[in-house]
Amino acid sequence: MKKNNPGFLFPFDFTIFMAIICRDALRRQLKAIREKEKQVTVPYYFYMQDQSKYLENIWSTLNQRRREGETYPLRILILGPSNDGTIEYETRCNIRDKLQALGHGAFFPEELSIQSGAWSDELLAEIVMQAQEAHVIIMIYRTRGTQSERDILMNDMIDNPCFAQKAIIFVEEEMYSKIKESLTGQDWERMRKVSDVQLYNVNDLPDKIVKKAEDITQKLRRKVYVRNLLKGAIT
Length: 235
What we know:
Structural class: alpha/beta
Low-confidence stretches: 1-12
Strand order of the largest sheet: 2-1-3-4-5
Mean pLDDT: 80
Distance between the termini: 102 Å
């Protein structure tokens, strides 16, 4: 009897056997990949959903903060000539009315004070307390009264610059040129490094000065808002 030739059958059987082995191994690999996809893809999908919601909440909060910063009401103390019928006093009134219309708490010291009359220690203490509480101090520098207010509030600006740092002082150009040549000239030059000293021409009264006061305080809204936010004064 003729024997089968194992040399012919073995390569054929081995090829089939290896194909089956490779097929099963490939199936196992594909199954493992699918299991990994189930473990990674599904949580990642929900992770992305959470991230999207998180980012949406952040942008919503930021937009709310921006709106609040742009409309944040400032406490503004407006110093200047008393009711003497001058264009400076009219400008002072217009600044107050405009800033109040924009939502600020803008007032004259005499409107807040229980003290009245000539300068006294009580009146001085009242104005200092008002200046301390104000976010911004606006001054139209002209009369002898405003000179006294400036001297009282600004003279200690080197040791205690808190008032000078939040002061916006409008002074007429011609007057300032004379001030520079006076004994207080150097004092004013030091103050200009700390305070916002705005020079104006008489023809700028009242409208241009009112607009400038509006623009400056509008820029300060967000600055004061952010400062109070960092201090924890705003929730």
